[in-house]
């Protein structure tokens, strides 16, 4: 499992660590309204210490081989997060989650980062299946798996509690054999 993944000439992903806590806090503070629309955890993150606690638990999940959480860096500026979560090495599956600051959206960054982490998951972790879940009303998030050729499998009804209401989630999946087929 890689500590750093080079995505392209300007984008890289670094495994999340304690020195990222302050910047993550600042990014969430500035982007709180933008992020909280679809992310259930945003309202609980109220201090740098909240991020340190989150990073501690993320590092533990990494040590247990159940998560690879990255910060997304544009040159030397942190602009978001992406991770391979719920890694199940027995069933060879995992999920991808992501967010980006508002100013960096619409530039293909998450799509490129997803490609890199999917390659990592299928080659180094020997996963067979990777999922992406997106709220049925979150069209920007749905565009990522659709652009990458994921299959829309169905809906998890009321699958996530966001802003005091349950939202339905689309489930998208990619299998290793599909990813490796020539385009």
UniProtKB/TrEMBL annotation:
InterPro entries: Acyl_CoA_acyltransferase (IPR016181), GNAT_dom (IPR000182), Ribosomal_N-acetyltransferase (IPR051908). SUPFAM superfamilies: Acyl-CoA N-acyltransferases (Nat). Residues 22-177 form the N-acetyltransferase domain. This is N-acetyltransferase domain-containing protein. It comes from Niastella koreensis.
